[in-house]
Design goal:
Blueprint lengths: L1 H6 L3 H7 L4 H25 L9 H45 L2 H8 L7 H14 L3 H11 L2 H16 L3 H33 L1 H32 L3
Helix pairs in contact: 2-4, 3-4, 4-5, 4-9, 6-7, 7-8
Organism: Lysinibacillus mangiferihumi
Keywords: Cell projection, Cilium, Flagellum, Membrane, Transmembrane, Transmembrane helix
Protein name: Flagellar assembly protein FlaJ
């Protein structure tokens, strides 16, 4: 994540995911940079050490990057959450499929048992199916999930919608979903163990920079007072 924060190679992809215009995000980055810079400048002026104003561009850069860090953090949280919600969605789908009769009706019923934010994408999928049962609609839903398993499962569900549901196919999908659920439980444990290491670095760096800069300014401020006092002492 730290490398992506520096390179920003996925910026366009993330903006497309959130449907956020580049111009709007550009303005947001400027605002973050200006706010951080102004806070830093206010501290410097209160402490009457204007020499440190030369560091203002660095604080603007931190604010500028923080906007992208926030975007990355939000995207990652959505990806992680969806990766664990997807198996739950599939379990509900499989449980409701025999009583609903077909894929379309099952998906509509499954919405009631699908948590946010996955339920919103499921509603979009249903609306697309109502306009025409196209494979791409299922694959776009899988793309939102962002895993190879999602592509395979959603393609299988599309096949169900076109060719009908066979008991053997359902049993095969049930076994796959069970394995997927078990793997996601293990991943969740590992994710919680590593979350602080993966996503706490940038805020910590900002905090250390601001606290360290503030401490340095305070130190120089008092050192100047000491120096002035020494200069006025009689020799």
């Amino acid at each position: 994540m730290f490398n992506e924060l520096l390179k920003e190679s996925l910026l366009d992809a993330h903006l497309d995911f959130f449907r956020k215009p580049k111009k709007k995000f550009f303005i947001q980055r400027i605002l973050y940079g200006v706010i951080v810079s102004m806070l830093f400048a206010m501290i410097i002026m209160v402490l009457k050490t204007p020499i440190w104003l030369i560091a203002t561009p660095a604080t603007f850069y931190l604010g500028w990057k923080f906007a992208y860090f926030k975007l990355l953090y939000t995207k990652n949280n959505i990806d992680v959450k969806n990766s664990f919600l997807f198996p739950q969605f599939l379990q509900s789908f499989i449980a409701l499929l025999p009583s609903s009769g077909n894929v379309y009706q099952t998906l509509k019923t499954t919405v009631n048992y699908t948590p946010d934010p996955l339920d919103k994408e499921l509603v979009k999928l249903i609306k697309k199916i109502e306009q025409g049962n196209d494979r791409n609609a299922y694959l776009e839903f899988a793309e939102y999930i962002g895993s190879s398993e999602a592509y395979m499962v959603m393609n299988m569900i599309y096949q169900f919608s076109e060719q009908g549901v066979e008991k053997k196919s359902i049993q095969e999908l049930e076994r796959y979903i069970q394995n997927l659920q078990e793997n996601k439980v293990d991943e969740l444990i590992q994710y919680k163990m590593n979350a602080s290491d993966k996503f706490g670095l940038f805020p910590i760096l900002i905090s250390l920079f601001l606290v360290g800069g503030f401490a340095a300014v305070i130190f120089l401020h008092y050192m100047r007072d000491v120096t002035d006092a020494l200069n006025v002492m009689p020799k």
